[in-house]
Design a protein that fits this description.
The chain is α+β, with helices and mostly antiparallel strands. It contains 16 helices and 20 strands.
C-alpha cells in the first residue's frame, strides 16, 4: 500500500513539474479510471484516454459531419468496378515507436487478427462482407469482400493498426493490458496514476512539423461541475463535458471560455408502428404536424440545440444529401387537426380524439429515461402540443434497462431517444433505423429499428446505395428514402444532438470550430481527437 501511495505521489509531482517546463496540453475528464490499460482493442470506457487519440493510428479519419476523409496511415484508396475489392496504399517512412518500420503487412495482420479473435470485431467487419485482407507489398493493402458494401469503408478506416511483430505474440487480446504500448502516433506513453496520465511528443513522428505541443496530460475529476471549474480557472485546456448552459454558464463567464458542439445526431420521437393507431401513416403524420419541434428544442436545451429537419438529416449533411425542393414538415396544428379527422380519427363533443371504431383513443405513454430532464421536458412539451388536437399523453419514466428494453422489444406507444445509427452520410441513420435486418417481431429484441418500420422502397434504396461507390447513385438512393420517410413519418425528428467539446483558449490556438470543423468535437480517446492534439499550438 505504501509503495502504491509513494508511486502516486511521485507521478503527481512529476506531472506538475513537467507541466511547468513543457508546452503541456491538459485534458480534464469528469470521470475516474482504473487499471493501466492501453489495449487498442478494448472498449473505449475500459482503456486510458490516450490510446486511440495519441498512441495508435488508423488508416484514415472520416469526419462524421460531412464525410471528409483525412489520410493517416493510408494515403489513398480505391474500390474496384464491382465494389468488392478495396485497395489501400499505406504510408511509407513510418516507424513504430520501438524503431521497427511500419508496412502494409501490419495493417493486413490487424484485420486478420480481428478475424482470428471475433470478440474484437465490434464493427462486424468479417460478418458484413470482408472475406480477406492481404498485403501485396510493403505499401499495398488489398481487402476483398464477398458482397458489395461500400459504407463499410468508415469502419475499415477507423480500425486502430497494431504492430505485427508484437501482437502476433499475444494470444489473449481481450485481457491484454498493453501497459507499454508501441504505436505510430504523435505521442508516446510516459506516466500513469489514477489521478493523471501523461504522453509525451514522439520525436520520430512521421509528420515532421507536428505535434506543436510537448505533452498531453489527462486529469480526472469526480463530476461535471469540478471539470468545468478546472476549465474556467485555466487549469485545463479541453474537456468533453455536457454543460447545462454552455453560453450563459460557461462562455460568458470568461474571455477564454469557448465551446464547439457540432451536431452529429438527433433526438427522435419514435412511433411504435407495430401497434394501432401508430401503424397508420396518416395518424403518424397528423401527430407530427401537431408538434412544435422548435419549441421542444428551446425548452429542452435553452436554445443551444435547434429543432431537427423532419428528414432526420443533420445540418452539416443537408446541402449535400437533401433532394432539391424538399422542405421540412411545418408545424401546423390546424392542418394536423383536419388531417387526423380526414384520416378517420374524429373528435367527440368534448374535443377528445376518437379511433376509427368511434371509441375514445387511450392516453398514450411517451417513454423516456428516468431523470433525464431534457427528454422529460421534450415529452411534456409534446404532450401539451398533442392535447390541442385531442390526443392525451403521459410521460413514462423508466430506468435504463426498462427504457432500452421497451424501445427494442416494441412494447411502448411513443418513445424519445437518439438516432441509433449515425455516420458521415444519412445512409447509416436510415440503414440502422429501417432495414429489416435491424427489426424484429414485438417481444423480441430489435437491434436498432425501434419503430419496427420497413418499406420495400427503402430496402431497395439501401441496397442500391451500398452496392455502389458512385455518388450520383448514392444520392438518388438517399433521395428515394427521404421522400418515403417524410411521407410516412415512422419517427419524428425532434432536436439536434451534439458533441460536447469545451475549451479554455488562454494558452493554445487551433481548436476545432464551426469555421474549422476538422473533427466533430470528439471525446478525448478517438481517432478524431488525435487531430485536435496535432492542430493545437501554444500561443
Amino acid at each position: 500500500m505504501k509503495t502504491a501511495l509513494a508511486l502516486a505521489v511521485l507521478v503527481s509531482a512529476a506531472l506538475s513539474a513537467t507541466a511547468q517546463a513543457q508546452k503541456t496540453f491538459t485534458v480534464v475528464r469528469p470521470t475516474q479510471w482504473g487499471a493501466q490499460n492501453m489495449n487498442p482493442f478494448a472498449p473505449g470506457d475500459q482503456r486510458l484516454g490516450a490510446t486511440a487519440s495519441t498512441i495508435y493510428e488508423s488508416l484514415f479519419f472520416v469526419n462524421m459531419l460531412d464525410g471528409k476523409v483525412t489520410e493517416v496511415l493510408g494515403t489513398k484508396y480505391a474500390w474496384s468496378k464491382d465494389n468488392r475489392t478495396l485497395t489501400i496504399t499505406t504510408r511509407s517512412g513510418v516507424k513504430w515507436t520501438d524503431g521497427t518500420a511500419f508496412t502494409a503487412k501490419d495493417a493486413a495482420f490487424t484485420f486478420n487478427y480481428i478475424k482470428q479473435y471475433p470478440a474484437l470485431d465490434t464493427s462486424a467487419l468479417w460478418k458484413n462482407g470482408l472475406s480477406s485482407a492481404k498485403a501485396t507489398n510493403d505499401t499495398t493493402l488489398v481487402l476483398t469482400f464477398d458482397r458489395s458494401n461500400t459504407p463499410i469503408f468508415t469502419d475499415i478506416a477507423n480500425v486502430l493498426i497494431v504492430p505485427q511483430h508484437l501482437w502476433s505474440k499475444i494470444s489473449a487480446p481481450l485481457t491484454e493490458a498493453n501497459a507499454k504500448p508501441v504505436g505510430t502516433g504523435p505521442f508516446v506513453f510516459d506516466q500513469y496514476s489514477q489521478q493523471a496520465v501523461r504522453v509525451v511528443k514522439n520525436p520520430n513522428y512521421w509528420m515532421k512539423d507536428k505535434p506543436a505541443i510537448d505533452a498531453v496530460v489527462w486529469v480526472s475529476t469526480n463530476s461535471n461541475d469540478a471539470a468545468q471549474l478546472k476549465l474556467m480557472k485555466g487549469e485545463a485546456d479541453f474537456g468533453y463535458i455536457g454543460l447545462a448552459d454552455p453560453v450563459g454558464g460557461f462562455q460568458k463567464k470568461g474571455p477564454n471560455n469557448a465551446f464547439y458542439w457540432p451536431v452529429d445526431n438527433g433526438n427522435y420521437l419514435y412511433f411504435n408502428t407495430a401497434k394501432a393507431p401508430f401503424n397508420d401513416a396518416a395518424f403518424r403524420r397528423g401527430l407530427s404536424q401537431a408538434v412544435n419541434t422548435q419549441d421542444v428544442a428551446l425548452k429542452a436545451y435553452s436554445g443551444v440545440a435547434k429543432g431537427s429537419h423532419s428528414s432526420g438529416i443533420i445540418p452539416a449533411q443537408l446541402k449535400a444529401w437533401l433532394p432539391a425542393g424538399v422542405n421540412s414538415l411545418k408545424f401546423d396544428p390546424v392542418a394536423a387537426d383536419s388531417a387526423l379527422t380526414a384520416a378517420g380519427y374524429k373528435k367527440d363533443a368534448s374535443g377528445r380524439r376518437l379511433g376509427k371504431d368511434g371509441k375514445p383513443l387511450p392516453t398514450f405513454k411517451i417513454l423516456v429515461g428516468a431523470g433525464w430532464t431534457d427528454f422529460i421536458t421534450m415529452a411534456t412539451t409534446i404532450g401539451e402540443n398533442l392535447k390541442k388536437v385531442g390526443i392525451a399523453t403521459s410521460v413514462d419514466q423508466q430506468q435504463w434497462s426498462s427504457y432500452a428494453g421497451g424501445l427494442q422489444s416494441g412494447t411502448y406507444d411513443m418513445g424519445i431517444s437518439w438516432g441509433w445509427g449515425n455516420g458521415p452520410t444519412p445512409y447509416q441513420l436510415y440503414y440502422k433505423s429501417f432495414d429489416p435486418d435491424f427489426s424484429a417481431a414485438v417481444g423480441k429484441t430489435a437491434p436498432s429499428n425501434l419503430s419496427r418500420y420497413t418499406n420495400p422502397i427503402i430496402t431497395k434504396a439501401l441496397e442500391a446505395y451500398r452496392s455502389s461507390s458512385d455518388m450520383a447513385v448514392q444520392k438518388k438512393a438517399i433521395g428515394d428514402i427521404v421522400k418515403v420517410v417524410m411521407q410516412d413519418m415512422p419517427f419524428l425528428p425532434l432536436t439536434d444532438r451534439s458533441e460536447f467539446a469545451n475549451f479554455n483558449t488562454s494558452k493554445f490556438t487551433g481548436f476545432p470550430s464551426a469555421q474549422n470543423p476538422y473533427n466533430y468535437g470528439n471525446p478525448d480517446d478517438t481517432t478524431g481527437a488525435r487531430l485536435m492534439y496535432l492542430n493545437v499550438k501554444p500561443k
